[in-house]
Amino acid sequence: MDNHRFLEVTRRICGSLDIDEALYDVFLYLKQELPLDAILITIYEMNPRQARIFAMAEETGGFIVDEPISLSETAWKGIGRWLDESRSGTIPWLRNQAHPINREILQIVRTGTPSIQARAIDEFCSITCALKVKRTIIGNLTLAAAGANHYDSSHADIIRQLNEPFAIALSNARRYMDLLRDHQALQRDAQKMVGDTLIGADSGLRNVRQLIEQVAPTTSPVLLLGETGTGKEVVANEIHKFSRRSAGPLIRVNCSAIPENLIDSELFGHEKGAFTGAFETAHGRFERAHEGTLFLDEVGELPPAAQAKLLRVLQSGEFERVGGGRSLRADVRIIAATHRDLASMVREGQFRQDLWYRLNVFPITIPPLRERKQDIPTMVDYFIHQKCEEMNLPHRPAPAPGALEKLADYDWPGNVRELQNIVERALIVSGGSPLEFQGFHTPGMAQTPALPAHEDRVATLDEVTEAHIRTTLEKTRGRIGGKGGTADLLGLHPSTLRSRLKKSGIPYGRTNNTES
Ligand SMILES: Nc1ncnc2c1ncn2[C@@H]1O[C@H](COP(=O)(O)OP(=O)(O)OP(=O)(O)O)[C@@H](O)[C@H]1O
């Protein structure tokens, strides 16, 4: 193959990360140069053993197949031998249509390929080459054509030369597909955890909605204030969604959940070898949020050193990775949130005043649920729908008569999160009958969560643990951290306790207690 042709094939196979498109582009070109009716990339893995046709191209287009195929025992023995041989050798192996493995694969491909399926297997010829990156085989490239014995040593030379660009393209395409899959799964999870709908935007949160609309298109920092569980993260999502950065990432940092000694590295990244365990250079959340939004949740929990560094980034737009001297820049819009009273933390010297000024450009206070009880029926409806889908429940029960009124009489110290939990619990115990909501309690009273009506029902460990946490909180008057605080008494790390409280919808850090 001359240089010009080699460059053209390389340009085409590396021209797109979508391997189906790239392969089809190559197919169209090579078809003018040699006998060709299909190109396929297959993958064999020995541990666990599986063979897959990864992608193919033929007359009608290029396709990602990525489906397992089953091969005979004889074929697998042959594959095992080849893999061993090629690991030691420098030249990737070749084999032709006469080989039983090629015949088996062609047989499978033929049945699903309109342009060649009418032909008998003996009417094909093919040539296959292992795709190697360094000494590792990552797949095989096969050229197939209708008719017998079309391929000779000149074609073997061509396919050998194509080994490297095809191997690189395959390796990139697989990584790219893995990343896409991870990304989609993470987005699905994130949306499940924090719903993507702001319920109450037309009633109890109308003002909040107006503020979101005003600030979203700008690049100004936003400070979200409100008790725990009021929906600060949902509002942050909305701001990002309606901003010009919506195509960029929304990266969340829970400032209270990162151990103090790792905060710098989490926010700003670290260079390889910066500390024990830093095996690779890592991008921090600032870098990952480039051209998007960084949501600093629980910003009131940032320790003083991290507050100083955050201030510097907000002022200059510059930061350094831990262990690196280079200044980096990231184009990031900041949304910060806290359930704490930042103004009084500033007065008490617990939060930097200059940082507070920087963050407090556009504050949005999200009212507690007790001040917008008109939203409760719509929320209950929404959560019933959401939870039934998540739990795969066949029936969607409605609230029992009078049940919604009961909810409206309650003060909701855990806000929307608590309501969400109450609905979920009601769905679990209802067995499909109308929902009686139980398990909410008067603020400040230690209580065992109400159990369903069956007298012989044994409380679950989670319920008992929850009740014990409530009792201990009551004893410490809601204090989480410090000596003699709830976390200390329960033998837990304060952030572990906080996430547990959050998950269970137990209010903390407010009413008659003080967080520390
Ligand atoms: N207006 C709303 N519409 C729909 N769902 C909501 C709304 N407000 C809150 N939720 C749901 O309630 C739960 C708690 O909301 P979120 O995590 O946003 O609260 P938060 O104020 O950030 O709490 P914290 O301060 O404890 O982090 C989430 O599952 C969220 O989806």
Please give a structural write-up:
The chain has 516 residues and is of the alpha/beta class. It is built from 19 helices and 15 strands. A hairpin with a 2-residue loop joins strand 1 and strand 2. The longest helix is centred in the middle third of the chain and has 31 residues. Helix 1 packs antiparallel against helix 2 and helix 14 packs across helix 16. Helix content is 42%, strand content 16%. The protein has 3 domains: 175 residues, GAF domain (Beta-Lactamase), CATH 3.30.450.40; 174 residues, Rossmann fold (3-Layer(aba) Sandwich), CATH 3.40.50.300; 135 residues, Helicase, Ruva Protein, domain 3, CATH 1.10.8. The termini are far apart. The chain has a 6-stranded antiparallel sheet with strand order 3-2-1-6-5-4, sandwiched between helices. The protein has a 5-stranded parallel sheet with strand order 8-11-14-7-15. Bound molecules: adenosine-5'-triphosphate. Adenosine-5'-triphosphate (ATP) binds next to helix 8 and helix 16. The site of adenosine-5'-triphosphate has 22 residues, from helix 8 and helix 16.
